[in-house]
Amino acid sequence: MREFGLIGRSLGHSFSQTYFTQKFHDLGLADCRYDLHELPTAAELPVLLRAHPGLRGLNVTVPYKQDVLPLLDEVVLAAALIGAVNVIDVRPDGRLVGHNTDYIGFRESLRRFLPSTRAGAPALVLGMGGAAKAVEAALRDLGIPYQLVGRRPGGPSLTYADLTPAVLAAHPLIINATPVGTFPHVEEAPDLPYGALTPGHYLYDLVYNPRETAFMARGRAAGAQVKNGYEMLCLQAEAAWDIWNPPA
Q1: Which of 131, 222, 229, 242 is the most exposed place for a label (fewest CB within 10 A)?
Q2: Between β-strands 2-8 and 55-60, what pairing exists: parallel, antiparallel or unpaired?
């Protein structure tokens, strides 16, 4: 039996288990299974691996995308530059290799979302955590200039208080890389001057539950184009599967 799984904390609403279980069924892979492993700390990873010698690959979710880094034998360059890992390849010799497919999933999903006329338009990235780092990497790949937005003043980032209508007008692409608006807190939305949004804006929310967040709903009401993070999740999962199953 080849085992795969997800490590993190509070995994009851996991996307990954449903996705991969269906994938195994569709591919007729009766020898594969995908389980959720809630760990009190990332330091429990070696204990998990000893208890499950059949593990061949792991997804990593918050809050361990950065905490697992010192536990790995190797981190590929893209993940090292991002500073976060969301996929671990468990090699046959036991070596643990870290990857980041979040940025791949976001990059490809954003390509499908933005029209060519907006391909180089400046972006605002809401958030400064691990998800934002993956978004930054994707934007750099695509040649899209961006400005980070955080809650605390200081440094090169903007704060939400800096987001005037003029700032929004200069940044047609706005990406929510925070968990704000995630179920069950569906009434919450990032603190923006939503009245300054126009049909020329594109709002991408990494949140996928609910399907339409308050951030997206307010953007849609202003005529903006909106998209959630579900496609990104699917694309990053497929990239993880390719890592775990390289061509012979």
Answers
A1: 242
A2: parallel
Catalytic annotation, pick one of 23, 65, 133, 227:
65
Cα–Cα dist 61/90, whole Å: 17
Distance of CA 41 to the CA centre of its chain: 20
Q: What are phi and psi of 113, to 5 degrees?
A: -90, -45
pLDDT tens for 109-160 read 999 999 987 888 999 999 988 889 999 999 999 999 999 999 888 777 899 9
pTM, entire model = 0.92
169 C-beta neighbours (distance < 10 Å), count? 13
Please count the residues of the chain: 248
Q: Is 65 a catalytic residue?
A: yes
Of 235, 212, 236, residue with least CA distance to 224: 212
